[in-house]
């Protein structure tokens, strides 16, 4: 890739190839595949409650509002029963070898609270009341806000000379090329839960790159630097 146009074509070809592979490898997962279904009676009660609320909003009579509140209380009580039943089932399933057993034991484990140390004044005496605490804090803030000590004139002069020397150097246009190890390291550090960019290529897809695709990506990066082409984000 020695030209500007070849670099653009290579980027487009690689992006299209990745999108095709991702589309061919994708599958649809039902939204409620991992959700435990509510009992039939509970679902019917919720539907009745929703219908009653709609009726009460449309016809706000005392009878409709009272009936809607009654169903709301019934739904709340029924959902509490369902949660209790689910919790009981989980407790029955938990064995000493179950990971939830150790998680529960760790959650119930308590440690002694570490007391907050008392504040000490400048003379190293302990502040015994709120007034002394306030005075200590005021003295501490005042001490932190005092003028800085005199700076080292010689050190400042050397720093300024070094800055002027670096500014006078000719600009360096040649950037070091990317390496495959460097690109692989950055791909490995990507977070898979981040949203993809405008090219719709996710971090998870990049992590599945073979060594050949990573090498192609490195070549594209180096061609972009060589041809001074930086695609829009």
UniProtKB/TrEMBL annotation:
GO terms of molecular function: RNA-directed DNA polymerase activity
Keywords attached to this entry: Nucleotidyltransferase, RNA-directed DNA polymerase, Transferase
Protein name per Swiss-Prot or TrEMBL: RNA-directed DNA polymerase from mobile element jockey
Domain of life from the UniProt record: Eukaryota
The UniProt record lists the keyword Nucleotidyltransferase: yes
């Amino acid at each position: 890739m020695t030209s500007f146009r070849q670099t653009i074509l290579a980027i487009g070809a690689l992006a299209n190839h990745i999108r095709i592979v991702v589309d061919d490898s994708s599958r649809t997962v039902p939204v409620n595949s991992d959700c435990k279904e509510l009992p039939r009676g509970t679902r019917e009660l919720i539907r009745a409650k929703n219908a009653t609320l709609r009726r009460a909003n449309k016809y706000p009579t005392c009878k409709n509002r009272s009936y809607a509140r009654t169903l709301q209380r019934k739904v709340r009580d029924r959902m509490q029963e369902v949660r209790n039943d689910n919790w009981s089932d989980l407790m029955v399933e938990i064995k000493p070898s179950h990971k939830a057993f150790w998680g529960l034991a760790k959650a119930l484990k308590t440690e002694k609270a570490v007391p907050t140390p008392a504040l000490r004044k400048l003379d190293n005496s302990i502040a015994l009341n709120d007034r002394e605490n306030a005075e200590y804090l005021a003295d501490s803030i005042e001490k932190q806000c005092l003028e800085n000590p005199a700076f080292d004139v010689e050190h400042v002069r050397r720093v300024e000379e070094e800055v002027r020397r670096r500014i006078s150097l000719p600009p360096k246009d040649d950037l070091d090329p990317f390496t495959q190890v460097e690109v692989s390291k950055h791909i490995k550090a990507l977070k898979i839960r981040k949203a993809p960019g405008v090219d719709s290529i996710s971090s998870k897809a990049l992590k599945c790159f073979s060594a050949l695709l990573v090498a192609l990506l490195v070549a594209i990066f180096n061609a972009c630097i060589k041809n001074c082409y930086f695609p829009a984000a």
